[in-house]
Structures are given as structure tokens and as C-alpha cells.
Design brief:
With 395 residues, the protein is an alpha/beta fold. The chain has two domains: 10-250, Type I PLP-dependent aspartate aminotransferase-like (Major domain) (Aspartate Aminotransferase, domain 2, 3-Layer(aba) Sandwich), CATH 3.40.640.10; 254-391, Aspartate Aminotransferase, domain 1 (Alpha-Beta Complex), CATH 3.90.1150. Helices cover 38% and strands 16% of the residues. The chain binds pyridoxal-5'-phosphate (PLP).
Length: 395
Amino acid sequence: MSNQHDQGRFETRAIHAGQGHDPVTGAVMTPVYMTSTYAQRAPAEPIGGYEYSRTSNPTRTALENNLASLEGGTFGLCFASGLAATSALLNRLVPGDHVVAGDDLYGGTYRIFTKVFERYGIEFSFVGTSDPEAVRGAMTERTRYLYIESPSNPLLRLTDIAAMSAIAHAGGALLVVDNTFATPYLQRPLELGADLVLHSLTKYLGGHSDVVGGALIGRDPSLREELAFFQNSCGGTGGPLDAFLVLRGTKTLAVRMERHCANALALAEYLEGRPEVERVHYPGLASHPQHELARRQMHGFGGMVSFELAGGVEAGNAFASATRIFTLAESLGGVESLVETPPSMTHASIPPEVRRAAGLADGLVRLSVGIEHVDDLRADLEQALVAAREAVPSA
Ligand SMILES: *Cc1c(COP(=O)(O)O)cnc(C)c1O
């Protein structure tokens, strides 16, 4: 690739970092290199540095360099899904190693920790990471990772990344931040002391709900070597078309996130004023208990909003079935608005008492606010609130 533009501000690097025009044809867009193997000049002398596409592929390299630039890292490694990235991260550990993790992680992350890697003798402790003392108390001399998400899902709780970095490093552990909800446009954990950033590219970075992918981004070259070894040895890499789709997504990340944030704030404020709504969770609201931390740590508050309907599970489900623009679906981060009810959907496997103790109200509804016109979205919420009240008159 020629004409590398790895300089400039975020919006500029989002479009150019890792990508230049194709030196052979002049193609402005990064080609989708649909090849599994590469010609060699002589044995073990690959022509362009590539040998086999599990190990590396030029379209994937472009994405890896683009993501490294956006997160302020020196390397990126891409995977077939967010969970394949998590898996590579855990492949570095050996039996007896310990991980301290947040107690409201993405469900799939909790599952791979407890149902897959615990069987290999890796130990996990789950703590509320908004409380630094609880985190410090959970660290042991075998703790290798402190693993956090901020903002968390679905209650949008924040964790102080700089404080976690101090605790992790004092205990000889690495701080890993799942930055899927915030994206590097709104929050850059490596600049706050994190050692590795993890992404589900499936969400905001892809941004169009048309691709599944994951990434790890960091700064330490020896960590890169180790993780690249597991990326290649375990083989959880995505294909070049996946990489191309995510590259197309990151080009518009900045403008999409601006609109996601503006729409989400407007809808959170609207919901806070509605009598059917008991509580709104959004870091951009002054009523959010960690609003000050959000202002300090993030450059915007994101596109995820959750709220509690007074009428419980039935009201939540009636609401989510009544929306017309908000599609009832799991996942998040695409241009289109989605709605889901965690107690019946993403968090249904958690027993009701445990769920309530963790702060997840029965009437909880989660919105992934898209970039449609905010007036249309507000009108959609309004008619669905009316429909929910009619279905559950006690609400
Ligand atoms: C979706 C998601 C993941 C898992 O990513 P996949 O691409 O679905 O494997 C991890 N963390 C968070 C916060 C997510 O939302």
C-alpha cells in the first residue's frame, strides 16, 4: 500500500489509517483480497510478506492498522467475532491463573469465562468494578487480568479506567477494557492506562449490523507476538470481506457516533419526563450516579439507553412489541434503532432473584438508539408507551 495517511485527527485517521490507494491499480478502496495463499519467489521467500491467510491477509492488515490508530495503540489483531478475541486473550493463561472481572459483563463473556475456561483451571472472580476497594480486595498474586466493561450492559454503569489501571498494575496484572459500547471515538482506554482494548466489531465499529468480528488492540510488542501466536495457532480469524465491511464502517464512525449520542440524549431526557417510566439509565443525564466520571472519561455518552417501566415484565414486553421504528432484536450499534427487554431476552438465563439483586428491574427495556430522525424515534417511543399502558393498565 502506498500513500499511508496515519497522521491527523481521529476523523481523518478513521478514513485513512492503515489504508492507501492500491499501488498496482490505483484503487482508492482497500481491495478485498480473496485468497487463502500467496505466491513465493523461492521457498520461504514470500513476494509480499504474506504466506497464508489464517496467519495474515492484506485486507485484515489494513483493518488491524486502522483500529490500532483509532485506539492509540501500536498493534491491532482481528478475529472472527468479539468472543474469538476474548478466547485468544484467555489462551495466554495457564491453569491456576486468575482473572478479576466486572460482575455485569456481556453475557457471552461471562459464559466463555465460566463454562469454557474455568474447565481449563483458570479462575475467575466477579466484582462490582465501580467500587475500587472491592476490586483491590479480589486481586491475588495469580491475577493476570483485570477485565472490565465501561459503560456496562444493560445498566450503563461506569468504571473508572485510570483507577483500575493503577490497581491492576500494582497487582502485576494487565488491565483489559471491552470498549465495545463506547468505541474509540468516545473513550480511549489505552490513554487511560489500559494494556489491551477488546472490541466486538459487530457493534458500532461495523455499524451496519451486517458483519460479525472482533479485535484486540494494545501497545506492548511482546504482547502482540504472544496474541498473534494464538490468533494464528487457534485460527479464529475472520475473512477479508468481513475486514472490508468493518473498514467501511470505521470511516463513518465519528459522524455516526455524534448522531447516536445526540439522539440517545434527547430520548433519555424525553423518557425521564414520562410518568410510565420509573428510571432512566444514561451516562449523559445529570441523574446518572456517575455523570461526573462520564464527563471526565468519555467524549460523549453513547447510543445505549435503558429504562424501567413501572408495569414490570409485562409492560416491558408490551412496549417492545409495540414499537414500529425500533426493531425488536438483540445486538446493538447499528445505524437502525433496536429495542429489547433484558429480563426476557439477553439476560433471561439469569434467575429472577439474582437478576433483581443485580439491579435489573423486571420492567427494564434497553434501546440501541440509531441515527434516524430523532422526532420519528421520539414519536415511536410515545406510541409504544401508550400501547404498553393500554396492555398493562396497572402501570
Ligand atoms: C457483542 C459483544 C461481545 C461479543 O462479541 P461478538 O462479536 O458477538 O462475539 C463482547 N462484548 C460486548 C460488550 C458485546 O456487546
